[in-house]
Amino acid sequence: MKKTSQVLLVAAAAVALLGSGCAKKKVAAKTPPAPQAASQTASTPASAPAVRQTPRAQQQSAAAPAQSRYPDAATRARIDQLLARIEDAYFDYNQHTLRPDAVKALQSDSSELRDIIVQYPDYKLKIEGHCDERGSEEYNLALGEARATAAKDYLVGVGIPDKQLATVSYGKNKPVCDEHDEACWQKNRRIHIVAEATR
Prior knowledge:
Structural class: alpha+beta
Order of helices and strands: HHHEHHEHEHE
Strand content: 5-15%
Oligomer: single chain
Number of helices: 7
Largest sheet: 4 strands, mixed
Number of domains: 2
């Protein structure tokens, strides 16, 4: 009985060793060639046609979208009309938050403007931030930028893509009024929206 148990144990050990030895040989033999064959197969046929066909495909696709990504003259004229109708948004002294009248000014025609320019991803608008004459140059440049950014955030909120809106601050350098009183200063604390210069 002991001999039978020992024989069975030795036989089981031998089977286990043979089984594991075969499995290692199969894995070792198959694993290295597979990635090399796959990479050669994938890179050689795929790269050759791609190199030959890509320039033509790019030229054709670049020609069509280049015209449709930027509005034609009639559409640009309509955008200019809408921009002219959107009044400047005004701000309180030393503030960059949009007042209710500023929101109302930005709402004017902004939905039609949005509906047009989203169709032309290369067309951009610029939001200019302005300040009155009081305060330092550095302070007013920062405040003008904060005002332009507040207006931009509002327009992005109504659906105009962020990438189509740029901001710039002129601080106190481009006043619309030169008097030295509150009525004039109020006119200078504003944002103004323009079309960016064409290419």
